[in-house]
Write a structure and sequence with these properties.
Helix content is 72%, strand content 0%. The chain has 453 residues and is mainly α. Residues 8-61 form the HTH cro/C1-type domain.
């Protein structure tokens, strides 16, 4: 009995069909029997007929391989649950499809990035980028996003922005404005533009217009793809897998997307759109499970202050950093290690109000969460100072501003130091202490000039 005949018989009996059931209306039961016994080789038309009756792909009859097997490999690549050697072997397998090798390289790059080895991650992402042909430019998105993340984490947002804008233009030239790719590129571009002191709100808005459910949808799409692939509904399975890939990318960049929400929130707050800022910051908190969610609490406190609700603002600040007591002596620089809440990951986003928060995010991606905690505390001190001023407690406001300055002397960058020094000088002037105000400005100028920023 031939291999084809064996497979036809196994599938037929497994589905409870007789030889007559399989044969009709084009063939006879005797013909089916001769094929199953290996006495006759079925024609291509007969194979197509049998495949249709058995509800399988012709390839499954001729090779014995289920057409969904290839999709199962891609599902494993998306879920990232296989052990490290599995991805390493696939990435170096010369017989594998280049797109699959690229996907394996992306997984390896993400893992190295999580481990704090940005240089190693760059090598994986670059190999992934080169494996994907220009005609499938949208499939390069995870690799380019990884390269941009690494460049930003290594302190070069300018190069990251260069990569992202070049890739954005490549997608448009190729006629491939894939929504998931556009979302990823613009979310990351917004953070880089903010790092560079540029207007990041347009890029953030472009990204957020395309934001979907992210991590919440991954398991549903993957389960759907598996079910459809197993039942040989391959076009539908492929569509579900594409949707799963977009959700996985969005999930991986959840904190960056949360950062885009916060950038737009700051723009809305500046424009007086308090409701819009509130909605964006709530979305940022929902997106992030790391320090970015705590950063959003500080932003929300500022919004509630603008809404005339100081009690809620103080409660939010307390939730973001319980270590700060508004009435305490706050001159000494705080210990940042206590700021990362238990159960949160070292994976943060960006704050549109200052470069220092962005620097904290860059260090969080490589595992150095302390800086983000320090920056969050400094920002919380600043909002506490504003609330104290509103309440007429200028001495408390001074203590909070001095505490924020003390932190930024160690973390930078210069813009934050300069702004806080100006704020404190203005406060001291209002307190009729001009000599102290001049001293603060002089000290601030010295600190800004000597700071690397």
């Amino acid at each position: 009995m031939s291999g084809v005949g064996e497979r036809i018989q196994a599938l037929r009996t497994g589905k409870g069909l007789t030889q007559r059931d399989l044969a009709e209306p084009n063939y006879t039961a005797a013909y089916v029997s001769s094929v199953e016994n290996g006495h006759r080789v079925p024609s291509s038309d007969a194979l197509a007929h049998f495949a249709a009756r058995l509800r399988v792909d012709v390839t499954q009859l001729t090779t014995g391989r289920h057409p969904g097997d290839a999709l199962s490999i891609e599902i494993d690549l998306l879920e990232e649950v296989q052990p490290q050697p599995w991805y390493e072997q696939l990435a170096t397998d010369p017989t594998a499809l280049d797109t699959r090798r690229a996907a394996a390289e992306v997984v390896l790059g993400r893992r190295r990035l999580t481990a704090g080895a940005a240089d190693d991650a760059v090598a994986h992402f670059e190999r992934a980028r080169r494996l994907v042909p220009p005609t499938l430019a949208h499939l390069r998105t995870p690799a380019v996003a990884g390269l941009a993340l690494c460049a930003r984490l290594q302190g070069d947002p300018g190069y990251a922005a260069y990569l992202l804008t070049g890739f954005r233009d490549e997608l448009h030239r190729a006629g491939l404005p894939d929504p998931a790719s556009v979302l990823a590129v613009h979310a990351l571009l917004a953070l880089c533009q903010h790092d560079l002191g540029e207007d990041a709100a347009p890029a953030a808005s472009t990204a957020l217009a395309l934001a979907g459910p992210g991590a919440e949808a991954v398991s549903a799409f993957v389960a759907t793809a598996r079910t459809l692939a197993a039942s040989s509904h391959l076009p539908e399975a492929r569509a579900a897998l594409t949707a799963a890939g977009a959700a996985v990318l969005e999930s991986w960049l959840a904190d960056e997307i949360a950062g885009a929400f916060r950038i737009r929130a700051r723009a809305r707050l500046s424009a007086g759109d308090l409701a819009g800022a509130l909605a964006d910051l709530t979305a940022a908190r929902q997106r992030s499970t790391g320090p970015e969610a705590l950063d959003a609490l500080v932003d929300l406190a500022e919004v509630h202050r603008a809404l005339g609700d100081p009690a809620t603002a103080r409660a939010l600040l307390s939730a973001a950093d319980p270590a700060i007591a508004p009435e305490a002596d706050l001159v000494a620089e705080p210990d940042a290690d206590a700021l990362i809440a238990p159960g949160t990951g070292a994976h943060g986003g960006t704050h549109s109000g200052g470069d220092a928060d962005l620097e904290g995010h860059r260090r969080d991606r490589t595992g150095g969460g302390g800086s983000a905690g320090e920056v969050r505390r400094a920002r919380a001190h600043r909002v506490h100072a504003l609330l104290s001023q509103d309440a007429g407690d200028l001495e408390a406001a001074e203590r909070h501003l001095r505490a924020a300055i003390a932190i930024h002397r160690g973390t930078g960058p210069r813009r934050e130091l300069a702004q806080l020094s100006l704020d404190l000088a203005d406060l001291l002037t209002a307190m009729r202490r001009p000599d102290d105000a001049l001293a603060v400005l002089a000290d601030g100028l010295t600190a800004v000039d000597t700071h690397a920023g």
